[in-house]
Amino acid sequence: MRKLLMIMLLCTPAFALAQNKAVDSLKNILTATKADTLKADLYYQIALELQRMDPVQSQEMIDQAMVIAQKLKYAKGLANVYAFMSVQYSNRGEFDSMRIASEKSIRIAEKNNLPLIVAKGHNGLGIYYWQTGNYSEAVKNHLAALAIREKLKDTLGICASLGNLSLVYFDNQNPKKSEQYALQSLALARKVNKTTMIVSCLQMLANVYGQGGQFDKALKMDAEALAICKEHNDTRGLSQVYSNMANCYTAMKQYDKALQYQQEVLKIDRFFNDKKQISDTYMNISGIYSEKKDYKTALDWMKKGLVLSQESKYKQGEKLGWGSLSNIYEQLGDYKNALQAHQKFQSISVEMINENSNKQIALMQTRFDTEKKEQKINLLNKENTIQRLSISKQQTTIAIIIGLLLVSVLVAGLVYNRNKLKQKALLQAEMLRHQDMMTKAVIDAEEHERKRIGADLHDGVGQLFSAVKMNLNGLFERISLEREEDKFLAENTLALVDESCKEVRVISHQMIPNMLLRSGIASDLKSFIEKIDADSLKIRLETTGFKDRLESNVETMLYRIIQETINNVIKHAQATQLDIILKRDAREITAVIKDNGVGFDTERAGTFEGIGLKNILTRIEYLRGTIEYDSAPGKGTTVTVNVPV
């Protein structure tokens, strides 16, 4: 099937456009109508339909809508035109113009009580802030749009807002949240059969799965989106599909196929004159040549991409461009330019960092969820008021059956007591659930902070050490050291810097166990153990029953528990032998960690105040498991962990 698609791609014109039925129908209505305001609305609707197929005709239609709306001072028409222009500016990478158009749309819509168009304006601002790297403001505006659309039951608008939130969370390194919003958006898009939104959702999911290494799943999303785009002449959608497919093939090391798809993407990007997208495509092509070790060609493509990202003020692209350029120069041996490019990469990274960004995003998400709950509570209160009014009108009837109430009181008392016990049980369950949520939040926050610190060590300190090593190498090659002690000092200095680089890399990898996302806990533990000096501590690992992967949270927490226990043995036990048995059956997972070290008095275990032990207990509590220590001074230690499946 993939070969057939390639043949079709090569044998048909890249941009052969045919008007779809919706456009033809709207044009027929336009010809027949005499009302100018309706004409403005029709021109706007036709422009929307053509936006992803024919940008030239689409622009002509929206220009006509603008002329009529300005002439009649038609507020709804003007607000819609500015919202549409915001999208056009985004497609062309003109982000300052995009922000201005969105703000104009919001002002006009708010002044004339047009809430759905206010939502469109916030949607535009959300995309602007996402494109320019301000994720907290992006989330704020998309949530504002979503709140309006949910209140007015605007299904298509809700679908769009959920999809846009998925994009922001994906770029903000939160693939789980991104997948959640993309799946919600896709379900709504399928429900209303909106093909452009279905394509966008499928491409978002393909991005998430591709980044997670699930290439078959990503290409499956691409194949479905490709069929829809070809059926509906969705040229811009084709650009997204081909780009994702190219990225998957690059990751799968099928470079010729990846380059072929990227060239098709480039044709479409140039057709739409989309500087931001052209910049992305140039950089993606550069990345393929870097993978192929053709660094000179990679350099040419990366420079062209960087120029366009600077012209369109696409900060995320500019940051990635300088970082990639630094690596290319280093591979070519041009260390001076490599260092300068890396310094520019760091400078832009610092500009884009907002220490409170993630906190603000979480706060806005919580506020949005709280407002929704309050709306539900208000609705329930109104329903209760109606019920009370109905009861008051029935008092006459109740008086007739007053005798029965005596019996009812007795029954009601019994029911009340029973309900009271039920409510008490529900309250206890809710408190336990809340406690679990709080524990999970603390652990998630710790994992997030580990990732952030590990990334900072790797990308910040690690890169600086690499630059220092590179500069020292260059310096020692240019100067002559006559004395043996000077040479010895120089060699020692280089060795220390090299050792520091390795140490930072090891620490960053321990903070972020990337393999945990790919291999499963058994392989991950084996990889972790292989990094420990076998001359100091011999470790034997035995695992059974881990053919299938665990749920991701359980896997992460169990890995951290065993990792922390091993670290405690290395730091405190003075052991030479460590045996680890990890097994899984239908009921539970059991981990036994046994060393031949100095041991300790288990009766004093409760007095230990180490952060590591507290972290272990917190994770064990969250997993509803148990941990036991069997030890005595001079007799080694055995730690047994049991976690229910």
From TrEMBL:
It catalyses: ATP + protein L-histidine = ADP + protein N-phospho-L-histidine. SUPFAM superfamilies: ATPase domain of HSP90 chaperone/DNA topoisomerase II/histidine kinase, TPR-like. The keyword Metal-binding applies. Pfam families: HATPase_c, HisKA_3, TPR_12, TPR_8. The keyword Iron-sulfur applies. Residues 558-645 form the Histidine kinase domain. Its EC number is 2.7.13.3. Keywords: 4Fe-4S, ATP-binding, Cytoplasm, Iron, Iron-sulfur, Kinase, Membrane, Metal-binding, Nucleotide-binding, Phosphoprotein, Signal, TPR repeat, Transferase, Transmembrane, Transmembrane helix, Two-component regulatory system. Gene3D superfamilies: 1.20.5.1930, Histidine kinase-like ATPase, C-terminal domain, Tetratricopeptide repeat domain. TPR repeats lie at residues 239-272, 279-312. GO terms for molecular function: kinase activity. The chain crosses the membrane at residues 397-416. Its main location: cytoplasm. InterPro entries: HATPase_C_sf, HATPase_dom, His_kinase_dom, Sensor_HK_TwoCompSys, Sig_transdc_His_kin-like_C, Sig_transdc_His_kin_sub3_dim/P, TPR-like_helical_dom_sf, TPR_rpt. It is found in: Cytoplasm. Residues 1-18 form the signal peptide. Its cofactor is [4Fe-4S] cluster. Member of the two-component regulatory system NreB/NreC involved in the control of dissimilatory nitrate/nitrite reduction in response to oxygen. NreB functions as a direct oxygen sensor histidine kinase which is autophosphorylated, in the absence of oxygen, probably at the conserved histidine residue, and transfers its phosphate group probably to a conserved aspartate residue of NreC. NreB/NreC activates the expression of the nitrate (narGHJI) and nitrite (nir) reductase operons, as well as the putative nitrate transporter gene narT. This is Oxygen sensor histidine kinase NreB. It comes from Mucilaginibacter rigui.
